[in-house]
Amino acid sequence: MHTEIHLLNIKSRLNDPVDKYLKYFSPERQKNILRYKFSSDRNRTLCAELFAKKLISDFTGEKFDEIKILRAPTGKPYCEIPEVYFSLSHSGDWIACSIGDVINGVDIENENRNMNLDVAKRFFLPNEYSTLKNLYYSGINWKRKFFCYWTLKESYLKCMNINNWSDVDCEKLLSGNEEISGCNFLVDNEYILGCCTSKESLPKNFQIDIMNKIF
């Protein structure tokens, strides 16, 4: 069993004409994507799905054009190829995709987003809030730890295909002792990435793919 994490920087593509990518999608999916107000959000969504299809093609040997990405009622994307699991996330200039032969989830966030301790108090476990509060009053970079927790919770939900993240214990995930465990990575010195998958297949690094080799 193994899980890989792939990253793609799409800064140069955020202002591309949307039509450049729409042609790869069904009319129904095009309508859904065009509901986004900003072209940058449309392009992130479009490029993320194309990136996933490319990775699935590489992972399975299936033809790119024959791979269909579907969505569960929770919104989680999936494909119908047996024993292929993937997860998508995007933030700012980056797209993240985890893929493997075991369930997995990934999330990436910019740690420079506006955030406050009230959010942590409302949504995080008491021990997590206490850790963040101590970092905050010590003048340490508490937001980095905040988004480590945030991305772990989001990636766990995607991995397990559930919606309620308030009871997800990040410290247990990070211990590596749980059947589903988690890890964090720092990307480009300002993005935090979280991944959850089986403890046996937890990635130790990530790979940055080259845009021109994707599409």
Quick recap of the structure?
The protein has 215 residues and is an alpha+beta fold.
Task: Please trace the helix and strand order, writing H or E for each element.
Answer: EHHHEEEEEHHHHEEE
Kindly, what is the distance between the CA atoms of the first and last residues, rounded to a whole number of angstroms?
28 Å
Mean pLDDT: 91
Number of helices: 7
Helicity range of the residues? 25-40%
Shape: globular
Q: How would you characterize the largest beta sheet? A: 4 strands, mixed
Enumerate the strands of the largest sheet in spatial order, edge to edge or round the barrel: 4-5-1-9
- Poorly predicted ranges (pLDDT <50, ≥5 residues)? none
Q: Structural class, from helix and strand content? A: alpha+beta
Record field, number of beta strands? 9
- Strand fraction equals 15-25%
Radius of gyration based on Cα positions: 17 Å
Give your account of this protein's structure.
This protein is of the alpha+beta class and 215 residues long. The chain has 7 helices and 9 strands. A 4-stranded mixed β-sheet has the order 4-5-1-9, with helices on both faces. A 3-stranded antiparallel β-sheet has the order 6-8-7. Helix 5 packs antiparallel against helix 6. The model has no long low-confidence stretch (mean pLDDT 91).
